[in-house]
Amino acid sequence: MANDFLLLQRYPESAAARLRTYSWRGSAWTFGYSQKIAFVRTQLPIAAGPNDICRRVTGGGVVDHREDWTYALVIPRGFALEELRASESYRHVHECLAAVLRTAGVPASVKVSCEPPTDGELACGPAGVCFQRAELYDIINETTGQKIAGAAQKRNKHGLLFQGSLWRPAVAPITVDWDSLAATFATTLATMLEAETVEKPWPDFNEDELSALVEHYGSTEWIEHR
Known about the structure:
The chain is an alpha+beta fold. The chain has one domain: BirA Bifunctional Protein, domain 2 (2-Layer Sandwich). It has 7 helices and 9 strands; from the N terminus they run H-E-E-H-E-E-E-H-H-E-E-E-E-H-H-H. The strands form 2 sheets. A 6-stranded antiparallel β-sheet has the order 1-5-9-8-7-6. The chain has a 3-stranded mixed β-sheet with strand order 3-2-4, with no helix packed on it. The longest helix has 18 residues. The two termini are 18 Å apart.
């Protein structure tokens, strides 16, 4: 989470969009900035320890990262995508990812309509837990109806941070080459952004700043902020 934020705040090439994909060393859950920690804890398994959870700077619900494919996309100021409303930037990125999934044989599509609200909820309103229900412009499996991918966003003076998660079990029984998917996703995004794909080494962030931010995201004050 610290690295994602620094990609937005400190990346040396401010005119370049950037995409990173990553995995997790062990069990991990992240949750949206505005979520209440009391609610979050009710959604976690008993085995989840204090070091397994982190509040994101982006919104969204609780995300279980034990079987997901995670990515972060940063769109700096100057790109048309960054200037769109949140719902539209969400839709455009997910249309790219859904198209890439279809090339891999996954029957993926972007959800474009909402069911009537039930139990007092808003139709397609934000779900407290990701992958329990597909929201508007999430990616779904057309065969099973299961949600495949969701995301959360944050905008500031530097641009847009888009943190996305794809639930691997939702693409079964299709076998996906995730490295190939990442490369194709980057190319598809570049086409949408009218940019070129260039693989870059990891930026040399200020070590003191990174360490301080990692400590901040791991602190009780941050995790229990709300």
